[in-house]
Amino acid sequence: MRKNLLAYIALAAICIIWGTTYLALRVAVMHLPPFLFVGIRQIIAGSILITILLLTKKVKVPRIKYLYHQAIAGFFLITFGNGLVAWAEIHIPSGIAAVICSMVPVIVILINLMGNKEERPNVPIIVGTALGFLGIAMIFGEDLGELSKPGYLLGVLLIFIAVVSWAAGSVWIKKRNQETNLFLNAGLQMFFGGLWSFVISFSIEDLSNVHWSAEGIYSLIYLTLIGSLVAYSCYSYALRKLPMTIVSLYAYINPIVAVILGWVILNEKLNPTMGIAILMTVAGIYIVNRGYQLRDVWKAQFTR
User: Fold this and answer.
1) Residue 202: phi, psi to the nearest 5?
2) Contact at 8 Å (CB) between 228 and 91?
């Protein structure tokens, strides 16, 4: 624990900061096109980080293959993982988006298991996955009428796609970032993710009537400097120093922070049933992670 103290501090920062970003993102997309907003936010954050690294001579100009890896990671983590969440929050509350995104650890573990045919999920993994999805089903059960609305249903589907994209991108880049500068990784992923977001924005969004409001500008500043520059750098650092299953624990805290903020500030729905459902979802994620850890322990014991 003491050896990786900074990594755990970085993880704690992620838990709180990314919980607040759902609220800020919800405010932002009420004023600006989502992929345009994500593109501006991530390119600025990535450019700042890359410039600082180059000017301080902390890194050298990277090779083409390295840039290619970061561009692919940026697409899955930022463009789809972040951009689709932004687009979805036009239609669904920030708290609901955060709870669905909390399933990232489950998807990460399932992807790892599918990538290794010799591994099979144990009982805790199966039970935890079922409990987590049951919790999400209970949340939607409170808003069955909303699911009949095309925009709401589309938003839910986009969040699930974003979750799978983020999880897949995390697993993919984890295997390719061992010998590279973790802050440069974060900067390049944000920069390329922002570029991909611009491509999508110019292709599908109506940019003829973009209006910059005070709320949109404040959200951009907060999400760029804190949500992207600080938190994403912390995520990359934690991902390098800690096991993926430990890093993904941030998903336990994010939805709780997001739901409470959405309820207090945006008057989003929160009742006892939804509270129980959120706790069930978080408990399910914990059980899945615990089952994954136990599986590794048992495997190590039987292979001695």
Assistant:
1) -65, -20
2) no
Extract the tokens encoding 138.
């209970």
Give the position of tokens 């920030």.
94
CB 121 within 8 A of CB 113: yes
Question: Radius of gyration (Cα) for the chain, nearest Å?
Answer: 19
7-41: pLDDT as tens digits: 888 988 988 898 899 899 999 998 899 999 999 99
Per the CB < 8 A criterion, the answer to whether 17 and 230 are in contact is yes
**48-51 CB contacts, 8 Å cutoff, 24+ apart:** 48/187, 48/229, 49/183, 49/184, 49/186, 49/187, 49/190, 49/229, 49/233, 50/184, 50/187, 50/188, 50/191
Q: Which two tokens stand for residue 167?
A: 């999880």
Cα 154 to Cα 85, 88, 122, 200, 279, distances in angstroms? 11, 7, 33, 17, 25
CA distance 73 to 53: 20
CB 39, CB 194: distance < 8 Å: yes
- Tokens for 136, please give them: 């999400």
Burial 169-183 (b: 16+ CB within 10 A, else e): bbbbbbeebeebbbb
pLDDT tens digit sequence for 219-252: 999 999 998 888 878 887 887 788 776 787 777 7
Q: Which residue range is the domain that position 65 belongs to?
A: 5-302
**Burial state string for 18-41 with b = 16 or more CB within 10 A and e = fewer than 16:** bbbbbbbbbbbbebbbbbbbbbbb
User: Nearest-CA neighbor of 25 among 38, 13, 14?
Assistant: 38
Q: How many domains does the chain have?
A: 1
Tokens of 141: 């059960």
Whole-number average pLDDT of the chain = 83
Q: Which pLDDT value is given to residue 77?
A: 92
**DSSP letter, residue 212:** -
